[in-house]
Amino acid sequence: MSSPVRHYVGGDFDASGEPFPLVDPVHGRVVGEVPAAPAELVDRAVRAAREALRGPWGSWSPAERARALHRVADGIESRFEEFVAAECADTGKPRELAATVDIPRAVANFRSYADLLAGRAEQSWHTGTPDGRGALNYTVRKPLGVVAVISPWNLPLLLLTWKVAPALAMGNTVVAKPSELTPSTAVLLAEVTAEAGLPAGTFNLVHGKGAGAAGQWLTEHPGIDAIAFTGESGTGTTIMRAAAARLAPVSFELGGKNAGLVFADADLDAAVAGTVRSAFTHSGQVCLCTERLYVERPVLEEFADRLAAEARKLTGYGPMISAAHRDKVLGYLTRAAADGQVLAGGAAPRFGDDRDDGFWIEPTVLTGLPEDHPAVREEIFGPVVHLAPFDTEEEALTLANTGPYGLAATVWTTDLARAHRVAPALDVGIAWVNTWNLRDLRTPFGGVKASGIGREGGDHSLDFFSEPMNVCVKL
Ligand code: NAD
Ligand code: 6OD
Fold this sequence. Notes:
Layout: E1 7-9, E2 12-14, E3 19-24, E4 29-35, H1 39-54, H2 62-78, H3 80-91, H4 95-118, E5 124-127, E6 135-143, E7 146-150, H5 156-169, E8 173-177, H6 184-195, E9 203-205, H7 214-219, E10 226-230, H8 233-244, E11 250-253, E12 258-262, H9 268-280, E13 290-296, H10 297-313, H11 323-339, E14 341-344, E15 364-367, H12 374-377, E16 384-390, H13 393-401, E17 405-406, E18 408-412, H14 416-425, E19 430-433, E20 448-449, E21 452-453, H15 458-464, E22 466-474
Parallel strand pairs: 7-8, 7-10, 8-9, 10-11, 12-13, 12-18, 13-16, 15-16, 18-19
Antiparallel strand pairs: 1-2, 3-4, 5-6, 6-22, 11-21, 14-15, 17-20
Helix pairs in contact: 2-4, 2-6, 3-4, 4-5, 9-10
Bound molecules: nicotinamide-adenine-dinucleotide and (2E,4E)-2-amino-6-oxohexa-2,4-dienoic acid (6OD).
Residues 150-154, 159, 177, 179-180, 209-211, 215-216, 219, 230-232, 235, 238-239, 253-256, 287, 379, 381, 407, 447, 451-452 line the site of nicotinamide-adenine-dinucleotide.
């Protein structure tokens, strides 16, 4: 049993606010409660963050901050099993996923930004002047100030720390609001930041819902200097409006409807296995998951048979996050079954035990739907992939590039020249060739079109979370 869900403001834990239920998605049972931060507490968190910025944290050198981030990483590692258990309890994801992806990546997020910060160079220019003595220009990077970090429920700690770590690295203070559905690992993180000696007010945590609650109050708060948000594109629009009112910078990682392209020359074993991962990891509740797969016509039938067979064999997957999300996914499946074909899955599984009250959906393979069908056009965010044929490279690109989103894509081919032609022509922020979700944390991460604004990862994050200032010294 992990710590009770509490806010963390100015170095103190606090459970104020009307509680709402925390539900276990595996069994559909209420297992705890989450206090909804009142507006007064959100305000206090922003003020505590401002004080820490002016006070102790603001005076720490980059080297001291880098060491602090490593201590946070050490703290997560030392309580690894607690973090894994809390992430699994909130999300229902299999232990293996939390233990090999979510929690190790949270550790890596802190370590990689600490290391990048420690090795970061500053720019300088010698400038000619008429008197021949010249001038020295150099750039200093200042923190933006108090940053709001608002994160979703699918990879709760991974996505929270992906923003918190670089924000702290650059000397900002943070008020974080995790998803109301998955608050627990953020509480453990708050404990770890305290144990790691971060000054009170450097990292603050408030819980609650978005609209009309802590999320909205945070984004509209005049004391918030920047907003880093991951979540739905529609929520991004709302948050951008709030940020626009005071011209606060935003970094947005939003929704996707990611395409995969399988060419007839692909290694089909690798393409099938890769698609099983890219479509069904965390039951499709990863923004990078493939929901549309276009397969070159000569191999479509074989590919579809093999993928459907693998989908039917899958066990050990987790549930949808909530009853509402399960019902939304089932809504797409009902329409898809009426308008196309279901090759595998398509319904809620029956286990014959208490999981039948949870929020499960079978791994599902669809085909035969028109491109403008909601199941092909809209983000489902579940274990659902639709297969369609293409005949030419040009057609494949047109199909992949159609639609409002542009987050990620996969290309399966053994033709090197084709790989280098097709991948850069995709309207996405991230294209993988013959793999999926292979991450190097220094690379730019983000989407185009409705999938995001800005890039995170490596220097991109450190740049976003700081303001460059030029100093010109006449010599
Ligand atoms: P969501 O937009 O509903 O919620 C995300 C967060 O925003 C939550 O903390 C929520 O409480 C808060 N929020 C909601 N409305 C708000 C408002 N009006 N003002 C301020 N805060 C508000 O998203 P979700 O359902 O939690 O997550 C799933 C979505 O996130 C999917 O669309 C998925 O593609 C996207 N996502 C994108 C990435 C990426 O890297 N591009 C990563 C993960 C998830
Ligand atoms: O790997 C990452 O850095 C990242 N931001 C992943 C996002 C996954 C979306 O669900």
